[in-house]
Amino acid sequence: MSRSIFAAASSPSQEGAMATVAINRIVLAIALPLTVSAGTIAATPPPHGPPWTVVDWPASLSEKPSTGISLGKLRIQFETTTLEQIRRTMHLGEIAHQGDAAESVSWLCYTIFDPGKPERIWITSGEMGGNTVVTGISAETPPHVTPMSDCPLLPKTFQPVSLDVPVWLGSSAAELHTLLDHLRI
What pTM, to 2 d.p., does this model score? Predict the structure, then answer.
């Protein structure tokens, strides 16, 4: 069974759903700040964003929800850091690619193997990033996770993983709602 909530920074129609479900997956992208749901297989590409394809509501944030992500002391800046820079710095991972044109996405995948809270993380670049510059991050807590060659174990030196804002996998819907209210104009 998959439970989902979707929170776009400027989507008041989605707020009711946020109060009912704890976060199991976060998909953070520049244009679509957060998508939350459960269940993906390790060898697959990163989870897709929310089900809407057109943003037809007015923006309502006074600032970006996040400008990047930190893997331990490694800072990844959206729209600046490249996938290749990350791979070379970590000496780990394979840049994978799927699709073309607007459906095009490249990524690095890493696994955090904690028996109590396993995580899978994808650092992504799409068409707007030329499939090289990081434009988003996806993360989830699958029920069973095993490091694989295309999604290796993230070394402890690159942990913890954190966004600029105090929300991550396992955060409650109330915490997400409070964060979005704080960022609203």
Answer: 0.70
